[in-house]
Amino acid sequence: MKRRNMVLGVLAAAVFVPASILAFVKPLRAAAPQFVPGVHCVDSGICIDDMSRLEQARTLYSAAVDATSRKVGPFHKPPSVVFCATNACREDFGLGNRAAAAVADWGVAIAPRGWKPYFVVHELIHFRQAEELGNIALLRKPKWLIEGMAYSLSDDPRRPLTQPFEDWRSRFEAWNAARGDAGLWQAADRVE
User: Fold this and answer.
1) Alpha-carbon distances of 152 from 33, 61, 73, rounded to whole Å
2) CB half-sphere exposure, 55, CA atoms < 13 A
3) Which residues have CB under 8 Å from 73's CB, separation 6+?
4) Do 127 and 35 reside in the same domain of the chain?
5) How much is the pLDDT for 182?
6) Superkingdom of this entry's organism (predicted)?
7) 34 exposure class (CB count in 10 Å sphere: 0-12, 13-18, 19+)
8) Is the same domain home to 163 and 75?
């Protein structure tokens, strides 16, 4: 009887803990968007809340994956991207005022205002950073490297950005120009 209760407790925790995390830490929902009401995962890598905009999402996704792969190397696994066309979806993924957000190498959520190529590429660069440097490394690496790379290599047309983002982009661009023949990820891995 004790063994049965222990097994049931472990099973309940295995269901309750992840469900609680997804309920209260909204950005993590990008890792499992199929469980968010109103979101439809229709293609490999594409989830959306407004099916009337599916072709636009497919075009943005395809172009962003291609651009990101050219700039920072191919993905190890296809990125999962949630395209929110409504503010309700934006709130479901905890985006607040952000245009988009990557959650490590688990997924990306795009807010209604983020349906622009440079926003999607920016977040896919963060996804690639997590793939290459590791999820924990993203928290330890300097912001000029992580954010500067994403702003620079996404071809974000906003110049100048507000501070400190413009400084981070400029510092990354100077570092990137000076790294010479060293591969991007090898050089980035050495940055403390």
Assistant:
1) 29, 19, 15
2) 1
3) 128, 132, 184, 185
4) yes
5) 85
6) Bacteria
7) exposed
8) no
Asked whether residue 1 is domain-assigned, the answer is no
- Asked if 41 and 77 sit in the same domain, the reply is yes
Is residue 73 assigned to a domain? Answer: yes
- Check whether 12 has a pLDDT greater than 50: no
pLDDT at 15 over 70: no
Per-residue burial over 41-68, b if 16 or more Cβ lie within 10 Å, else e, is beeebbbbbbeebbeebbebbeebbebb
Q: Among all chains, which residue has been given the structure tokens 């905890």?
A: 94
Cβ pair 58, 46 in contact under 8 A: yes
Residue 69 structural domain: 26-131
For tokens 């905009």, the residue is 53
User: Element (H or E) spanning 81, and its range?
Assistant: strand 81-83
The answer to whether residues 161 and 114 belong to one domain is no
Considering the domain architecture, whether residues 45 and 127 belong to the same structural domain is answered as: yes
The CB density around residue 141, as the number of other CB atoms within 10 Å, is: 19
| Of the residues 109, 131, 153, the one at which a domain ends | 131
Give the ranges where the chain is alpha helix by DSSP (H): 2-24, 54-72, 87-92, 117-133, 135-140, 143-153, 165-178, 184-190
